[in-house]
Amino acid sequence: MIFFVSFALVATVVPARPAARPIAYDSFIRDKALFHVVKADLASGLVHPTAVYNRGLTSSWKLVAGSNATVGITGTFFAPSSGYPVGDVLVDGDLKVRGYRGSAIGVDFFGGVKIFDTRFKQEYDWSQYKFGIRGAVRLVANGVVCPNPKAQRFRDRRIWGKASRTAVGLDKSGKLILIATKNSVTLSQLGKAMVSRGVVNAVSMDGGGSTCLYYRGKMVIGTGRRLSNMFVLQEKAAF
User: Fold this and answer.
1) What contacts 36, CB < 8 A, 6 or more positions away?
2) Of 176, 211, 197, nearest to 75 (Cα)?
């Protein structure tokens, strides 16, 4: 009888399912363009968003390897000759670069992410953030696609033409959404692609020849151009 009960208990044990990763990859097609998507669950406590910066230009591989990245996406615009960014870059609370324009991504000391706009030619107080990148183009605000780089004082016409692009956004639940496409799309098409994934607030990062997306050891979209900064996600172990 004792043997029967023990056997019954063992027989009913169901193997535990492996926990879902807090960072996951997907892709979809919209407007005949292939969009690569990375979704990160910030509420899991296992995702560490950071900004990385190199003084001068270097390979995207070195930027992701040096930061122990699980995911890396192109950061803010920069001068092609020197690699100097057009907007602020904050790393570990240290403002490495000053550039007074564009929208921004801020990562607070608890790993929370906020997307916000800044005033042109005005210094921003980063004291509540540990990492940050400024100089991006506002793409989606409160669920509305609304790119207007001219109003944000961007002058390069290539920004509002068709190009390969990258973007960072937040959905209604606070999940972080990174999107990149190698196909040529407008800012509005990029914004609509973000909204189709549930994004309510987003910015467009650098694109064109700088478009880059790294995911778990692979360059999903690689670039032959050297970069100076990236927005990076590190995935922590669950134990």
Assistant:
1) 25, 27, 179, 180, 181, 213, 215, 220, 221
2) 211
Task: Give tens-digit pLDDT for 103-151.
Answer: 999 999 999 999 999 999 999 999 999 999 999 999 999 999 999 999 9
Are residues 194 and 177 in contact, defined by beta-carbon separation less than 8 angstroms? yes
CA distances to 21, 43, 102, 226 from 147, rounded to whole Å, are: 32, 28, 11, 27
Distance CA(224)–CA(226), nearest Å, equals 6
Query: ∠14-41-137 over CA atoms, to 5°?
Result: 160
Cβ contact 60:213 at 8 Å: no
Question: Where residue 15 falls among pLDDT bands split at 50, 70, 90?
Answer: low
Q: Which amino acid is at 56?
A: G
Q: Do residues 194 and 167 lie in contact, with contact meaning Cβ atoms separated by under 8 Å? A: yes
Least confident of 2-6, 33-37, 53-57, 93-97: 2-6
Tell me the sheet residues that pair with 229.
53
Q: How far apart are CA 183 and CA 239, in angstroms?
A: 39
Token representation of residue 86: 């057009």
Contact present, 210 and 225 (Cβ < 8 Å)? yes
Per-residue model confidence (pLDDT) at position 194 = 98
- Is a pLDDT exceeding 50 seen at residue 9? no
